Structure to design on (622 residues):
């Protein structure tokens, strides 16, 4: 029972961290049809900035997180303006080549600036230790990660379903040319959603640093996981991404607890099964 | 199949000329560059052999990606299957004759191609890419787990191939291995030249350009793609067997996602949909990587990344494709 409970909590926390990082990827992929392999690199930049602000400058956790999110967006804007804009609508292979190139560059620069060691982000007192639920105690950081995931999911739902910008965003996802003809400035929509996506990736990188440790090869190591989540959930769908993250987080965590010698065998087996049964993702729309 | 028979009748006349000037130029170029490499870099033959083996892998990716339009980040599965096939045959079954090892590798690669083809061809676009990633990770974990056969993370050591044709020992400098690799490359190149210009090759291109029309013509797109996958497995398997023979050890890195991604990058760098593009991309990428990592081991990844970005911005069709376009413009200008 103890094992089942701790697996469930870890799986939930892991799934939520995955969700915070990859939801931005899912939205941009659904919107701009860019296979963005550099998304994990932005999460990594967020982790590095937060680690630098909290450890080397001695700032608080909340301020460090804020610096990480804003700093990553500031770094990402010129990249979007000068590199990504060239590959909107390009063939998939070109996009893969370009975004892998960006990832390699970011890894190399991070390695040069921060060195190859693991970077930690010191947690504030309130997030350390464990919370007593009466019958079980769980690490406070896990609860924090789960709450972050829920808040992000709720805020995104409100942003996309209930605001005027959300309507433009959905219109551009469905048919960019038609939305542009009706007066939606799709370039602005693209730029804003790219910035939001990158900011969420940075937030996820900071919140998830306990589960996905920050090091230079972070971008390559987890890139595949984020892509898998988007493909399983269906690009551009928030509920799909949430279900996919929770499901894959549960499978991965259970596999690591119960059969660690198999590594990620069961994770990828599940991915093959799900994608074979739902070729457009769990919540993918039929075209 | 009636359709492809028709094809060979109508489009057959230009296609039937198997040994055209293009193949001849390519053949001469490979031999000249290969022999030049042998004499210019006598101490680097191991690297050159490695380049040839990876070149076979990239050619095999070109068959499915360039000619059939299937995007895959998991093609090292076929290469690794060939390497492990040849290695296991040598270590566990005592088959140490190099030619037989190569054949075993090719068969293992074809089997892996059949399996991953069945899985990967079920989806399109991003899900297809993800399926191919899942396949390479499954192969990797399976090989890691079956350590009794594959040596696990220690690698499969103790491969001792016999003398080639009973005459040429595999020496310390890798001369025999290099020449053997060069001969394999030439044979595969000529075979693929025939293949991609055959009616079947045309059908594969058709399946990339317009799958609906191909199926309306009565050919099964899926069976064409699957057959191409098996053929590309043979090519990648030969490449894998070549590494097993030349380095005498097979490691888990031959089944890695990194190798798959790097070889796809090499293909796109050179230019998809052409055998020359695949070969040029491999040479340029591996040469550049070797040069930069020797000059500055801390920055090589940044340099490689910058190279990739530059290629996308300035040579979007790959080095060979963009070069061909520029040459064509010059020729057009002169007329």
């Amino acid at each position: 029972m103890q094992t089942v409970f701790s697996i469930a909590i870890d799986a939930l926390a892991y799934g939520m961290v995955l969700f915070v990082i990859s939801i931005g990827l899912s939205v941009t992929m659904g919107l701009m049809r860019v296979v963005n392999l550099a998304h994990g690199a932005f999460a990594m930049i967020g982790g590095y900035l937060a680690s630098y602000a909290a450890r080397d400058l001695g700032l608080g956790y909340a301020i460090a997180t804020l610096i990480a999110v804003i700093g990553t967006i500031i770094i990402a804007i010129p990249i979007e303006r000068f590199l990504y804009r060239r590959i909107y609508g390009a063939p998939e292979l070109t996009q893969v080549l370009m975004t892998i190139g960006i990832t390699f560059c970011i890894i190399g620069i991070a390695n040069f600036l921060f060195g190859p060691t693991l970077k930690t982000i010191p947690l504030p007192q309130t997030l350390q230790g464990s919370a007593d639920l009466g019958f079980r105690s769980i690490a406070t950081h896990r609860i924090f990660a789960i709450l972050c995931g829920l808040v992000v999911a709720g805020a995104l739902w409100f942003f996309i379903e209930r605001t005027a910008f959300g309507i433009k965003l959905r219109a551009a996802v469905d048919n960019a040319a038609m939305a542009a003809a009706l007066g939606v400035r799709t370039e602005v929509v693209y730029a804003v959603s790219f910035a939001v996506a990158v900011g969420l990736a940075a937030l996820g990188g900071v919140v998830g640093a306990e589960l996905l440790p920050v090091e230079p090869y972070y971008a390559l190591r987890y890139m595949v996981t984020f892509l898998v989540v988007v493909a399983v959930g269906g690009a551009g769908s928030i509920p799909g991404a949430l279900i996919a993250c929770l499901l894959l987080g549960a499978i991965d965590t259970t596999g690591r607890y119960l059969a660690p010698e198999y590594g990620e065998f069961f994770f990828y087996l599940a991915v093959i099964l799900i994608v074979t049964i739902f070729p457009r993702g769990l919540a993918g729309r039929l075209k | 199949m009636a359709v492809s028979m028709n094809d060979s009748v109508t489009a057959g006349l230009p296609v039937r000329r198997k040994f055209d000037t293009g193949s001849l130029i390519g053949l001469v170029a490979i031999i000249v560059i290969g022999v030049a490499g042998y004499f210019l870099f006598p101490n680097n033959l191991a690297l050159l052999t490695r380049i040839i083996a990876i070149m076979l892998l990239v050619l095999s990716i070109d068959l499915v990606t360039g000619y059939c339009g299937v995007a895959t980040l998991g093609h090292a599965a076929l290469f690794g299957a060939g390497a492990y096939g040849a290695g296991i045959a040598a270590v566990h079954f005592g088959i140490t004759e190099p030619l037989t090892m190569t054949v075993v590798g090719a068969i293992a690669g074809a089997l892996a191609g059949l399996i991953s083809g069945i899985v990967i061809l079920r989806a399109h676009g991003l899900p297809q890419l993800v399926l191919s990633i899942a396949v390479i990770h499954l192969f990797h974990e399976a090989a890691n787990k079956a350590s009794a056969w594959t040596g696990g993370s220690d690698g499969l050591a103790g491969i001792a191939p016999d003398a080639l044709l009973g005459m040429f020992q595999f020496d310390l400098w890798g001369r025999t291995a290099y020449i053997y690799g060069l001969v394999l490359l030439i044979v595969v190149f000529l075979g693929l030249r025939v293949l991609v210009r055959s009616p079947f090759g045309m059908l594969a291109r058709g399946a990339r350009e317009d799958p609906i029309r191909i199926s309306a013509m009565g050919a099964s797109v899926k069976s064409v793609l699957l057959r191409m996958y098996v053929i590309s497995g043979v090519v990648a398997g030969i490449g894998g067997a070549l590494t097993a023979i030349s380095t005498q050890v097979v490691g888990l890195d031959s089944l890695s996602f990194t190798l798959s991604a790097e070889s796809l990058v090499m293909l796109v760098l050179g230019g998809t949909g052409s055998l020359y593009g695949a070969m040029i991309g491999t040479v340029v990428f591996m040469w550049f990587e070797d040069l930069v990592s020797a000059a500055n081991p801390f920055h090589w990844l940044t340099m490689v990344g910058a190279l990739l970005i530059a290629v996308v911005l300035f040579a979007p069709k790959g080095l060979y494709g963009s070069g061909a376009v520029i040459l064509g413009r010059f020729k057009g200008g002169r007329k």
